[in-house]
Design brief:
The protein is an alpha+beta fold. The protein contains 23 helices and nine strands. The chain is elongated, with a radius of gyration of 45 Å.
């Protein structure tokens, strides 16, 4: 028995019922506005936080407005009954249409689906996911406009697990695999549901059926369906591919959003016209939006459900062949020449030959190449020097080493020394490097290896000696600044007083041993100090003290030069 009144609405009759509640036809008692009143099941009101969630989501759904969305008016509670009111649409649902006609012609399916895509786009942009898209939620007006209802109602109660069977929210025949697993629904979930709805509109049956809801849900997750075209051959293959892509198991494999799906659907009739090669077969209804990116579209009476399959698919290969062959019979001689494979191959060879000649003619002469290298060497040391070596000096040596080696060798040596300095500052190992190209490079490498081993004093001694020899030579302007920078780096990396505490502690320990009368122990320490630090310029003072202590009267040690290490 329907209630007589709900809120400000007078209830006149029942329109339908389902797992999410009962829908009544009502009239606002003050404004006379007709509305569809949906009464929610009493179990929903017992869900924790229901009231707060109800009002919050009602506010969100009011932002979902568009010509293909059933408008939400208001909602509330009346004597323990929760309801919401929405726009009343005069017409029928897709479920009722399928019950009467069994299936819907494919052109009209495209028109309906394009309109639903527009509704989904509006909702998704507002952050609302439908979650329960199905034929009974698609309303068809008599003028061909399709509207989507119950928008976001499933999401209002997503915090609970409210359905007629106590499972996850949604209608199992149109539920995405991720929803069937209890995962969060996304806009790709709505894309899957729309694919299932298109499937049932085209074929008269959903993609998966079963004896129980669990059986159908398992098929959504793991099963394979027959493509719509196997059931209804007259469906264009492009539309068949779109539906199958919507029904991909993984969300990321479906269309990214409803707008992209809308564009793909609108392309199908155009592709069919081009394939048939006959523009006269284009859809000539009363302004169908199937051919217009923004239109809604209406029925195409020429595409009845009993259309001859051969009229659509049977002659497709013949028409494609005709479209390919007919233009060739009307080609001009020039067009036929450009359509010839041998002509195109000959033209390609000619183009390659001309390009090769142009490249050769623009190639720099040796003199210009050398001048280019000199110009690059005038720039600060860095990438320009490497470019000079790679693109100027080395190519010259490859062309004529005898002529150009005397001229490019100084530059190559300058580049080598610069790179050696860079590597020196990085203390990189040299074991895989090529042999040194000059004595200067050899001694700089020696200093490098000494620094790498931590022999800072020896490295400084080597560089200082090399610097003294380089003064006044032809390469002094290039090499001396490099050596000075390397010496400065050595000064910065010299061991601190704390780092050199070993020799100081050893000398102090030797003195303690001598004071205690252990001359053998003291002598052993002094001998090892000389062994380890005798050649280290930074430790020359301590090493000399050790030598003096060994040579002092009363030590019974004959010492000339460095002593051999003694075992303590």
């Amino acid at each position: 028995m329907p209630p007589e009144r709900l809120g400000p609405y007078r209830i006149e009759r029942e329109l339908g019922s389902g797992g999410m509640g009962t829908v009544y036809y009502g009239v606002h008692q003050e404004t006379g506005l007709a509305a569809a009143i949906k009464v929610l099941p009493a179990a929903m009101a017992r869900e924790p936080g229901f009231v707060a969630r109800f009002h919050r989501e009602m506010d969100a759904m009011r932002s979902v407005q568009g010509p293909h969305v059933v408008e939400l008016f208001d909602g509330g509670e009346d004597d323990g009954t929760w309801y919401y009111s929405m726009e009343y649409v005069e017409g029928e649902t897709v479920t009722e249409r399928l019950a009467r006609d069994r299936r819907i012609p494919w052109r009209e399916v495209i028109d309906i689906s394009v309109q639903i895509c527009k509704a989904l786009k509006v909702a998704h942009n507002a952050g609302v996911i439908h979650r329960d898209l199905k034929p009974s939620n698609l309303l068809l007006r008599k003028d061909g406009v399709a509207k989507l209802t119950d928008f976001g109602v499933a999401q209002v109660f997503a915090g609970g697990k409210l359905t007629a069977t106590g499972g996850v929210i949604g209608t199992v025949e149109y539920m995405s695999p991720e929803q069937a697993q209890g995962k969060r629904a996304t806009k790709q979930s709505d894309i899957y549901a729309l694919g299932a709805v298109m499937y049932v509109m085209l074929t008269g049956r959903p993609p998966f059926t079963g004896k129980t809801a669990l059986d159908i849900a398992q098929k959504h997750k793991f099963g394979q369906f027959d493509s719509p075209r196997r059931i209804v051959p007259e469906i264009p293959r492009w539309l068949d591919e779109i539906v199958c892509n919507c029904l991909q198991k993984k969300p990321e494999d479906r269309y990214p959003d409803a707008y992209v799906l809308q564009l793909r659907l609108q392309e199908v009739p155009k592709k069919l016209e081009l394939a048939q090669g006959d523009s006269k077969t284009s859809h000539s209804g009363t302004g169908s939006g199937t051919f217009d990116l923004d239109g809604a579209g209406v029925d195409d009476e020429t595409q009845a459900a009993d259309v001859d399959p051969a009229a659509v698919g049977g002659t497709l290969m013949r028409d494609l062949m005709r479209a390919q062959l007919d233009p060739k019979t009307t080609m001009s001689p020039i067009e036929k020449a450009f359509d010839s494979t041998w002509f195109l191959v000959t033209a390609l060879v000619l183009v390659v030959t001309v390009c090769a000649w142009l490249y050769t003619s623009r190639k720099l002469s040796p003199e210009r190449l050398f001048a280019k290298g000199e110009e690059l060497m005038e720039q600060p040391a860095g990438p320009s020097w490497e470019e000079a070596r790679k693109n100027a000096f080395l190519p010259l040596l490859e062309q004529d080493r005898a002529t150009w080696e005397p001229k490019v060798a100084p530059y190559l040596n300058q580049i080598a020394l610069y790179e050696l300095k860079k590597d020196f500052l990085g203390a990189r190992t040299l074991r895989n490097d090529p042999p040194p190209r000059s004595d200067v490079e050899r001694f700089m490498r020696r200093a490098w290896e000494q620094r790498r081993r931590g022999e800072i004093g020896q490295s400084r001694q080597t560089l200082t000696a090399l610097r003294a020899l380089m003064v006044g030579t032809s390469q002094s302007d290039v090499v001396l600044p490099l050596i000075d920078e390397m010496l400065q780096t050595l000064d910065q990396s010299a061991p601190s007083a704390e780092g050199r505490s070993l020799i100081a502690d050893a000398m102090e320990h030797a003195e303690e041993l001598r004071a205690a009368g252990d001359l053998e122990g003291a002598r052993a320490v002094w001998q090892n100090v000389i062994l380890l630090y005798g050649d280290d310029p930074d430790s020359a003072v301590e090493a000399e003290k050790a030598r003096a202590a060994l040579a002092a009267p009363g030590q019974n040690v004959s010492h000339s030069g460095d002593a051999e290490a003694a075992s303590p």
